[in-house]
């Protein structure tokens, strides 16, 4: 119990550092006086982190799952990026711009496929002009096996609510007039965190030596990807933002 | 009817359907021979007449062709067809058709063999064969001489006999021979066949049967020996074309590395910069992205392969319904821990690996072997859904109607729309141009054919049944590769094929008594003079001046 509380404290501390460190500098402010809104974004994002912990623990009665979900939520690219700019969570006009509109069935399915594509999931963020980092998708490449396992385990256990919610969010995004520049993908991150956490727990509970070995390799690679992400975020991203500042949606 | 007879009856029906879908109007659907097809056709003709290819190489183990070093098996298989049916579209495509039909049969046999004794094994194997028989992806490749249909047949039949070797060891040798032969069918097989073989050796625990392993290896080695000898003389014969499309050949990754390193700044520690920006990480991401792009919905169901000549108008390479079946099939496969699990997962993975190592993705041609595991997954999903106890009849009815609708849509797109509205995808027009020259070109001293895009020389060889021995002597080539790595023929006889050609500049200084043939796409829209060679939809393909 104490160990878990300590871990939760460390996660919050990590979030505090990640969300507030050099908030007005990385990414650079674009002359739109949005520091106060950014600050609010960071606070809401922090609050969200705690909310996810409590919700997952309440629903699944598992401290391990909730703790792991919240750790993953804290480190996924979208959470870090959106938690440090004026996010959709604190600026209502961004919501209004994304209200789903009717689209043809073909377009809806095509957009949906784009959203669930591995390209969007792992390698590219198309929301650059809305604040995304081009080189990173929704989750890290090393987390893909855990995500697939999580989907499989939830389906096998017939606990498919997170999967259905994910599908609904993606369907709504597919109908957004701003597609694919859509920052509402942020809403799906808690679900991704939960599914991946489930996958990790399932992987780790497997005592097979090969599975353990693969898990360790994936964690090492995840660590490397995390370092890569923060390097991109602190070195390359500010430069990209400055280079394309005219096209970036404000307030930023 | 006994269960066995019933099964045989359905299998025969499926094979009949496969034959019908692959043989119907073979000469005119696709509407023209693509340059790769016609090159193989003429080389087969050349081998038939002279035992040498167009370059004069005696019984080559790799066809230099346009400088792309085509694997030769499909070409050799064309020789009997050309001997019997003459040099035409049908004889060129027949090996692919036969391979495609036999693959449907062997798909059934492999699945039945691997799931023997399991509930529903017969039905799943029949469904796998059926899904393969009506698969748009498989039909498209089986009706074109694009190498991969032949390669898949040798792979699947090799796997079948190798697995069958468990009971009768002589089949190990046959299996090994077929798998080894597959490396002569397609470049990708030079990666796929060894990996599949390694899996089969482990699966069959062949490492503990040393004598069989040794004899099998000897069979394999003897089969690939000619290729190895040719490789020792000229490395291009093994990975010639593969080299130029490799992800490591593409400069994109190197440029990105340079860009990122530069952005780190001059003050950055070189070791740290290298830690963040290095080739292994960038290539890993690139290869993983290339691999995974082949499993994206828009590619599989809506857009398909955009590289010519592979697009099927208005659809992807699979039916939309297959997507649902595949997902259900995957779930069933892992949930029930079926014995076929490892085989399907591995063949699917291995099928996509060669394409992931190239930079032109997604590619339906290079990943064609994936059509087999995907068909089996589809069959598993379809079978599982049709076993739904609560509303079995309704599910079967809905699935049947939906599948027939998808099939009807595909037949309309492929058999009607493609030859009439998308003939340009298949280099339509050159056969008609050759005919024009044959009928009315005798009076000209020179026939100048723009060779900026494509290889028109081979159409003039093929449709004129030009004597291969004469061509081997008279062809003028400079062997300089163009920007895509292809080598051109400059001229032969009175035919001239300028590679860098602008008709509008040459227009005022035309050679005396010469006929010029230029693709419409290379001319400005306002150029209306000349004689038109039209596509079936009446748009201009070529202009003759």
Structure description:
With 252 residues, chain A is mostly helical. Chain A has 11 helices and no strands. By secondary structure, chain B is an alpha/beta fold. Chain B folds into 2 domains: 3-20 and 32-242 and 293-420, no CATH class; 428-544, no CATH class. Chain B has helices at residues 3-23, 35-50, 73-85, 89-114, 121-133, 136-142, 148-164, 170-182, 189-203, 210-233, 236-244, 252-264, 270-276, 279-292, 297-303, 320-335, 341-356, 371-386, 392-421, 430-440, 456-463, 468-474, 503-506, and strands at residues 446-449, 476-481, 487-492, 495-496, 514-519, 531-534, 540-544. In chain B, strands 2-3-4-1-5-7-6 form a 7-stranded mixed β-sheet, with helices on one face. Chain B is globular and about 80 Å long. Chains A and B meet through helix 6, helix 7, helix 8 and helix 11 of A and helix 12, helix 14, helix 15 and helix 16 of B.
Number of strands of chain B: 7
Low-confidence stretches of chain A: none
Q: What's the main sheet of chain B like?
A: 7 strands, mixed
- What count of domains describes the coordinates of chain A? 1
Task: Report a brief summary of the structure.
Chain A has helices at residues 2-20, 35-60, 63-75, 77-83, 92-97, 105-115, 118-123, 144-156, 161-174, 189-205, 209-243. With 252 residues, chain A is mainly α.
Key traits:
heterodimer, A: mainly alpha, 11 helices, B: 545 residues, alpha/beta, 2 domains, 7-stranded mixed sheet, 7 strands, 6% strand
Topology:
The complex is a heterodimer of chains A (252) and B (545).
Chain A: H1 2-20, H2 35-60, H3 63-75, H4 77-83, H5 92-97, H6 105-115, H7 118-123, H8 144-156, H9 161-174, H10 189-205, H11 209-243
Helix pairs in contact in A: 1-2, 1-3, 2-3, 3-10, 6-9, 8-10, 9-10
Chain B: H1 3-23, H2 35-50, H3 73-85, H4 89-114, H5 121-133, H6 136-142, H7 148-164, H8 170-182, H9 189-203, H10 210-233, H11 236-244, H12 252-264, H13 270-276, H14 279-292, H15 297-303, H16 320-335, H17 341-356, H18 371-386, H19 392-421, H20 430-440, E1 446-449, H21 456-463, H22 468-474, E2 476-481, E3 487-492, E4 495-496, H23 503-506, E5 514-519, E6 531-534, E7 540-544
Parallel strand pairs in B: 1-4, 1-5
Antiparallel strand pairs in B: 2-3, 3-4, 5-7, 6-7
């Amino acid at each position: 119990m104490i160990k878990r509380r300590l871990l939760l404290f460390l996660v919050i501390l990590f979030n505090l550092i990640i969300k507030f460190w050099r908030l007005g500098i990385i990414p650079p402010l674009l002359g739109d006086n949005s520091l106060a809104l950014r600050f609010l974004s960071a606070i809401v994002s922090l609050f969200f982190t705690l909310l996810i912990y409590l919700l997952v623990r309440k629903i699944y009665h598992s401290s391990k799952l909730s703790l792991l979900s919240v750790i993953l939520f804290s480190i996924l690219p979208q959470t870090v990026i959106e938690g440090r700019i004026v996010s959709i969570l604190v600026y209502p006009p961004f919501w209004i711009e994304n209200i789903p509109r009717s689209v043809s069935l073909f377009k809806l399915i095509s957009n949906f496929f784009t959203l669930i594509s591995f390209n969007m999931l792992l390698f590219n963020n198309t929301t650059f002009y809305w604040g995304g980092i081009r080189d990173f998708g929704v989750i890290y490449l090393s987390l893909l096996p855990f995500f697939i396992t999580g989907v499989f385990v939830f389906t096998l256990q017939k606990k498919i609510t997170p999967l259905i919610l994910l599908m609904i969010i993606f369907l709504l995004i597919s109908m957004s007039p701003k597609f694919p520049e859509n920052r509402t993908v942020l809403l799906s991150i808690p679900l991704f965190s939960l599914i991946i956490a489930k996958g990790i727990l399932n992987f780790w509970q497997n005592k097979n030596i090969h599975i353990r070995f693969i898990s360790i390799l994936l964690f090492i690679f995840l660590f490397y990807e995390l370092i890569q992400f923060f390097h991109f975020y602190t070195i390359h991203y500010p430069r990209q933002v400055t280079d394309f500042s005219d096209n970036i949606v404000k307030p930023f | 009817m006994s269960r066995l007879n019933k099964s045989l009856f359905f299998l025969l029906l499926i094979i009949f359907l496969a034959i019908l879908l692959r043989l119907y109007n073979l000469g005119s659907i696709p509407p023209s021979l693509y340059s790769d097809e016609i090159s193989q056709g003429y080389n087969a003709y050349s081998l038939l007449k002279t035992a040498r290819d167009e370059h004069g190489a005696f019984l080559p183990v790799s066809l230099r062709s346009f400088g792309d070093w085509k694997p030769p098996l499909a070409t050799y298989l064309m020789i009997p067809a050309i001997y019997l049916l003459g040099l035409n579209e049908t004889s060129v495509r027949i090996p692919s058709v036969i391979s495609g039909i036999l693959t449907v049969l062997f798909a059934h046999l492999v699945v039945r063999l691997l799931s023997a004794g399991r509930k529903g094994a017969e039905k799943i194997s029949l469904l796998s064969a059926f899904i393969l028989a009506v698969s748009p992806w498989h039909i498209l490749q089986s009706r074109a001489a694009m190498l991969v249909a032949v390669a898949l047949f040798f792979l699947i039949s090799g796997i079948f006999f190798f697995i069958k070797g468990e009971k009768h060891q002589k089949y190990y040798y046959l299996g090994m021979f077929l798998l080894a032969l597959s490396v002569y069918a397609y470049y990708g097989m030079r990666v796929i066949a060894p990996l599949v073989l390694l899996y089969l050796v482990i699966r069959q625990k062949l490492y503990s049967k040393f004598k069989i392993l040794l004899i099998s290896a000897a069979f394999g080695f003897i089969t690939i020996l000619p290729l190895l000898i040719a490789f020792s003389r000229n490395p291009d014969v093994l990975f010639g074309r593969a080299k130029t499309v490799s992800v490591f050949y593409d400069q994109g990754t190197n440029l990105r590395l340079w860009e990122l390193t530069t952005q780190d700044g001059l003050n950055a520690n070189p070791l740290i910069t290298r830690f963040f920006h290095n080739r292994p990480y960038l290539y890993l991401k690139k290869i993983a992205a290339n691999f995974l792009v082949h499993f994206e919905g828009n590619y599989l169901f809506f857009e398909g392969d955009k590289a010519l000549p592979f697009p099927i108008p208005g659809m992807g390479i699979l039916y939309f319904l297959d997507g649902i079946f595949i997902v259900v099939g995957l779930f069933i496969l892992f949930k029930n821990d079926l014995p076929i699990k490892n085989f399907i997962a591995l063949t699917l993975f291995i099928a996509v690996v060669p394409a992931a190592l190239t930079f032109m993705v997604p590619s339906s041609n290079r990943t064609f072997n994936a059509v087999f595991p995907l068909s089996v997954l589809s069959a598993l999903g379809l079978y599982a859904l049709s076993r739904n106890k609560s509303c079995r009849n309704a599910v079967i009815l809905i699935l049947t109607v939906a599948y027939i609708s998808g099939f009807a849509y595909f037949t309309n797109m492929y058999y009607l729309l493609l030859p009439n509205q998308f003939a340009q995808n298949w280099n339509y027009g050159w056969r008609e141009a050759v005919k024009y020259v044959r009928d009315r070109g005798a009076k000209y001293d020179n026939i100048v054919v723009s060779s900026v895009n494509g290889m028109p020389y081979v159409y003039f060889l093929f449709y004129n049944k030009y004597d291969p021995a004469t061509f081997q002597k008279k062809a003028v080539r400079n062997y300089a590769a163009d920007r895509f790595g292809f080598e051109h023929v400059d001229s032969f006889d009175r035919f001239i094929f300028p590679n860098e050609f602008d008709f509008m500049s040459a227009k005022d200084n035309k050679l005396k008594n010469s006929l010029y043939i230029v693709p419409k796409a290379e001319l400005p829209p306002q150029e209306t003079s000349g004689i038109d060679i039209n596509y079936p939809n009446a748009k201009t393909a070529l202009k003759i001046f």
